[in-house]
């Protein structure tokens, strides 16, 4: 099944970037990102200024801005960690978000052509997902592909896609132990596929190259408490991914992974990473079974309701592992309160249709 | 994680082919298949002779042979339909089976090199599967790949792989309605990936280009009752795939799909296919939810026990749809009886270790 020509979504998509330390980054992406509005969330010292090259339309938030806008609720936003990027998801007013790290450059496809990552994300997110049955020729909505023999026709319309998870050539997204064991491994395999992650299956969502539909799943895209003052780092996107997937499965929404690739230019320091990760490496052995077993009630019909239910289960089931999860559970609630404050329900969404 | 050099498995693998009508077929595959033993199962008129080129080591079975070997139990083997190939799985004495259709030729990879499909299947089947969590860089056991950040370490050893499902360039494996709507569509996309189909997810297993471990899953590879005297065709491999996947999930075995590709040379007639398929197109709307909901008891610890449990559920739940499923359920039991007759348990497998 083919989808029509990719629209640009210029007025419907924001680009969210954690602190830009790498000046080349925006220049390299200029042809692709300049048509869009940028939201940059500075993770460190608010007095340090960030230079944005001319021609970009952007807003920049530092810690002082976050504190001013959210007040005491700013406690749910990580400090000195790129997890703070989720503040950008909250202040955006657009339907779609593309988030990317500043060490991710434009990749080339096997023919040598530059990959317009955002265009592929838009294709992914605008075409349905198929989480209920696996299609062996991958995304049936791509040009030249379709559903294969034996695919039930009732499932072919698919469900709305909430998330498009892109991948990385060059430096793969490995954990510290794997980085240490395989310091020279590079991802050179261009896999020309997009696929829906089946219902009931969790995946490791990486925040380096990610697009999502804010209206469908935004309130679940919380990147948790990482970095300064926290016992853990580098699990911000993972945490969001596990919550997002459980909620998408509950609400009948789709998550795609695969294309587009970006070029991940440099590996972060494995020793620093190990320090950030080591508790997570233990904890994920309990966190994954927790999310695999998590169920949400029939009453939870909005992302917010789902997320609040999940936060309670986090406190109840993961609080035993470490007090960190009590704090995280509270922060999940604060995040939703802050989200709703900045994103009040539209008039049309009021239950009886009456204006506020 | 890398696996060691691919062994040939010459003495451990049989090639099963339904009737060879296409004489070019074996010549094209000669460099790849000649080292192996071939089991050819003739689907039609037993008086018609099949010419096998010199140099191949093969055994050929026609309907008279099947009747002679299985006696009354031959009723479980389809007549005048390539579904009869599963008789070959039963008479083989090897650990692995590669089955391929005679309209499948050697494909080329994007660099123009001929693809040794069997070598890739062997790689797939000898390396573990990872059905409990999705790895975004696909098969972590391929050269140059690994598990990504956030993948629980306890799940990284994986589980034994029971099935390797290969794909097709050129003519895609579409159902009749899709063939009719898209007569000119060709699969030209070479997706350089192998992946585990997650636990709990069903897929449309195509028998054109398939490898499996007989010892792990053989008795579930029954291709059902199709063709002559049956109300349905072209669901033989699908039926096997659904049963196989439910049983693999229950027993903790893996199913991989993706590479290798073969070149599927010609589309079968969509009008003929529609006639064979149309009941299946209705029925699969009930069959898929049936298999998605099917659970096996803790007592079912062998493939045979699982399959017999499944056969009872088929009778109970699908028998309502059409009497065909009663017949099929009985045939599933007959198939297991015939399998056990031709494949008696090895002495070491006797419960108390005593020789028979």
Secondary-structure element order of chain A, as H and E? EHEEHHEEHEHEEHHEHHH
The span between the termini of chain A is 43 Å
Structural class of chain A: alpha/beta
Strand portion of chain A: 5-15%
What is the gyration radius of chain A calculated from CA atoms?
A: 20 Å
Task: Show the helix and strand layout.
2 copies of one chain form a homodimer.
Chain A: E1 13-18, H1 23-33, E2 37-41, E3 57-61, H2 63-70, H3 86-91, E4 96-100, E5 104-105, H4 117-126, E6 161-170, H5 176-181, E7 194-196, E8 209-213, H6 214-217, H7 236-251, E9 254-264, H8 270-293, H9 303-318, H10 324-342
Parallel strand pairs in A: 1-2, 1-4, 2-3, 6-9
Antiparallel strand pairs in A: 4-8, 5-9, 6-8, 7-9
Helix pairs in contact in A: 7-9, 9-10
Task: Spell out the key features of this protein.
homodimer; 356 residues; 9-stranded mixed sheet; UDP-arabinopyranose mutase activity (chains A, B); glycoprotein (chains A, B)
